[in-house]
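Hi support team,

I've been running sequence recovery on a batch of backbones for a student project. Most finish fine, but this one hangs at about 90% for roughly twenty minutes before it completes. I'm not sure whether the input is malformed or the queue is just slow. I've pasted the structure tokens below so you can try to reproduce it. Let me know if you need the job ID as well.

Thanks,
M.K.
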């Protein structure tokens, strides 16, 4: 009998959608942070005047920013690979279930009626058919 696979499909789809949304939010956050640092970098100078006093403002180290962006990029890439792997596995599992269901349907609709007709035959005709098939 064909079993519904929608329950498993729904849970797996939710997980895949969640991971894709998380991946997109990480990418968007990275882009926004990059733009924020670019804007602040252009507006910051080495000295600034606050309430009439000059203060030395240290700029964020570029190596720290680059390291942070590189590590975020690597994490995003890993997450993307994981989502792709899980999506591929989900498609493979679904394909296998569908193939199994199709083969069962083909058996039930084509071979089962032949077997039923064979069972209805008298014993001597069954033996003849068996001989002809087994040649």
């Amino acid at each position: 009998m064909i079993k519904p696979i929608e329950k498993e499909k729904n849970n797996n789809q939710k997980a895949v959608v969640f991971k894709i949304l998380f991946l997109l939010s990480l990418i968007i956050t990275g882009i926004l942070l990059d733009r924020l640092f670019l804007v602040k970098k252009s507006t910051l100078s080495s000295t600034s005047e606050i309430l009439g006093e000059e203060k030395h403002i240290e700029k964020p180290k570029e190596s720290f920013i680059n390291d942070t962006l590189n590590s975020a990029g690597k994490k995003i890439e890993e997450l993307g690979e994981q989502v792709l792997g899980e999506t591929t596995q989900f498609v493979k599992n679904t394909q296998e279930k569908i193939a199994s269901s199709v083969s069962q349907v083909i058996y039930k609709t084509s071979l089962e009626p032949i077997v039923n007709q064979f069972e209805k035959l008298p014993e001597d005709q069954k033996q003849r058919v068996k001989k002809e098939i087994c040649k």
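--
Follow-up from support: It reproduced on our side and the slowdown came from queue contention, not your input. Residues 6-134 form one domain. No action needed from you.
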